[in-house]
Amino acid sequence: LFLLFYLVLLYSQMDSSIAYDITATVTNAIVPTNDNTDDNQKEYSDKSEVYAWLRNTFAPIWADPKCGDGSCSQQTEYP
């Protein structure tokens, strides 16, 4: 109950334009769009489209860095 009250209080104190910018960015990144009309896609013709959307949306998040060309990312592990 306290956590819910705290989150509502924090949300009410946010600037509305910043909240819209954050919400719009997340929505544009995650919600699938129809390639022909740029509207939100609400239906899929088969499950391969769902898998393709999942792969294109979330696979880059967990992509391993490409090494071997001399510009590999440093590790983010701490001792």
Total of DSSP H or I helical runs spanning 4+ residues? 3
Helix content: 40-55%
Q: How many β strands by DSSP?
A: 0
Structural class: mainly alpha
- Which strand-content bin applies to the residues? under 5%
Specify the biggest β-sheet: none
Radius of gyration: 19 Å
Low-confidence runs of at least 5 consecutive residues: none
Coarse morphology: extended
Question: What is the residue-mean pLDDT, rounded to a whole number?
Answer: 75
N→C terminal distance: 37 Å
Task: Spell out the helices and strands N to C.
Answer: HHH
What is the structure about, briefly put?
With 79 residues, the chain is an all-alpha fold. Helices cover 49% and strands 0% of the residues. It is extended.
Distinctive features:
extended, 3 helices, 0% strand, mainly alpha, 79 residues
How would you describe this protein?
The protein is 49% helix and 0% strand. It is built from three helices and no strands. The chain is mainly alpha-helical and 79 residues long. It is extended.
How is this fold's topology laid out?
Elements lengths: L1 H12 L2 H15 L16 H12 L21
